[in-house]
Design brief:
With about 475 residues, this protein is of the alpha/beta class. Helix content is about 35%, strand content about 20%. The protein has a 9-stranded mixed sheet, sandwiched between helices. A 6-stranded mixed sheet has the order 12-13-17-14-15-16, sandwiched between helices. Helix 1 (about 5-20) runs antiparallel to helix 2, helix 2 (about 30-40) crosses helix 5 and helix 8 packs parallel to helix 9 (about 180-185). The protein is globular, with a radius of gyration of 22 Å.
Length: about 475
Amino acid sequence: MPLRRPAAALAGRTAGWLSRLTRRGGGTAVSGLVTSALDPNFVPASLSQLHSTITVTGTNGKTTTTAALCALARAAGQPILTNPTGSNLERGLAAALLPHVNLTGQIRDAPNLRAILELDEWAFAALAPTIRPRVAVFLNLFRDQLDRYGEVDRTAAAWMATIDRLDPHATVVANADDPAVVAVARRHRGPLVFFGVDIATDATTPDAWADVRRCPICDGRLDWNRVVYAHLGSYRCRSCDFHRPKPDVRITDFQPRGLAGSCYRLITPDSNRHVEVKLPGLYNAYNLAAAVTGVRAAGIETDAGSVLETFQPAFGRAETILTPGGTIVLLLVKNPTGANQTLDLLRSEPKALDTLVLLNDGVADGEDVSWIWDVEFERLSPRRLVVGGRRAEDLALRLKYAGVAPTVDRTLVCPGIGPALDAALASEPRSPSRRLIVLATYTAMLDLRAICTRRGWVDPYWKAAA
């Protein structure tokens, strides 16, 4: 129907406008939901008009990697369409497309426009065959939201089925250090490139809570000669030829600088450069390596090192928010692997920190919060500690068993987000130089940012992500 697409786009834009007007949200989901309901073919039909599409999927790091890919592409003069708010289901893609749709339902400047889109793990499995990405980036596969996804082998199987349906001319970019991801990538019939981290470690067995221990091809035993974290590292199967492939882009000489960032060597087939980045943590080194590999696979030429050195964290991911009582550093945690890496990051800080931990159980967080028992909270050594969110009591119990006790005052348990934030900011000293570290699940992070927005401390997330 000729009028269906423009009518659907108009209805979606109106729904998004009303959502922002009534302060019910940023319209980053409802606008796309309305549009896709009225025109189920809106997303694939719109993306088919574009120059090309790059997709990013994985358990952790999608938003940061997508933002870094966009920064690299824009530095090369490429016009970009993206979903910067992290709304990564079909509705989020539809919402991202709407600002680019004209009155006839067509994408403006479509032949020159490149889409760089993050996709939820299961959204990728459902949508990739119809949106036909030119480059598909696979970051990692960890246990996350068991009530939604199930175990990692279920997601891996869905990805494998999707890989079989990708265009053979598409390029798959995969994390060489993740056996589950490599097994998926090896199914691809077309170009395949890898990224990874080459650093010296003492660990030769995966962490106790790691998700992959056996060969995803033959179920034989995997041996690691080096583990970076979780099940990521250098591995080989005892029973078949499955092993870690050589990365095309790799990180070496990694040096953490706490929350201030990190420095390392970024090595590609045609460059070897020392970079100092503002993104903290080894997990973000993986994200930036994935972004560099992705733009190379897409044929985009840019000075990656210079771009990454000025790249700022995405909202809620090591974001800083200035308040009258001090600076909030907001760190998203949503599964055992990500949370444990964040706790490692905090341990590299020279002093104990005032800490607020927020646990929600919304659909986007995972309604099953049993994952907190696989988080090594024993690593946490706060100066002051406040626990909040809808499941604050569950979190307080976990912290009690972890033996976590602040060095000053007692642990405060404040169900909800606002009261917990106020309690954390109320402690002395109150000064602009004081830092409050906030570890928050996804919806708790959004709730906290909404409170900060109402108080005038930060822009709404849909503006911060733009």
